[in-house]
Amino acid sequence: MKIKACPFCEATITKNESGKFPEFCPDCGREINPKEMLSLDTKETLNYVSPSNTIASILKGLGWTTIILGFIIGIVVASNNDSYLNSAPFWLLGLPYWIGGFISGLFMLGFAEIINLLHQINLKMK
């Protein structure tokens, strides 16, 4: 896969929303002519790092799955009509599952966001 890079600092340059390359390098700030940009293969760039992070994506998916499953399991437990549990309100039985699933899911989403932010910082430092 070919990527465009700055001829001065070899930073990766991507097209903006209008489909054109920027006039200035986002890293070094120098003015660049699109004809002067380097056309490098991703394997040629030693410091090339993918802009997406797999671990952060997996943790984000697991976080949302944990929240959803905690809610569903709480509903299943709360709707169980055993005779010895009739003294407590039905929603009170599902409350620990809802709270536990929500807190666990938020921790995973938080860790995913931390990993994603660290990855973005790493990309900016290269």
Q: Can you walk me through this structure?
A:
The protein has 126 residues and is mainly alpha-helical. It folds into 2 domains: 1-48, no CATH class; 54-125. The protein contains 2 helices and 3 strands. The protein has helices spanning 54-78, 90-125, and strands at residues 2-5, 12-13, 38-41.
Shape: rod-shaped
Major sheet details: 3 strands, antiparallel
Number of separate helices: 2
Rounded average pLDDT:
79
What is the number of domains?
Answer: 2
What does this entry show, briefly?
By secondary structure, the chain is mainly alpha-helical. It folds into 2 domains: 1-48, no CATH class; 54-125.
Topology (elements, then pairings):
Blueprint: E1 2-5, E2 12-13, E3 38-41, H1 54-78, H2 90-125
Antiparallel strand pairs: 1-2, 1-3
List keywords for this structure.
126 residues; mainly alpha; 2 domains; three-stranded antiparallel β-sheet; 8% strand
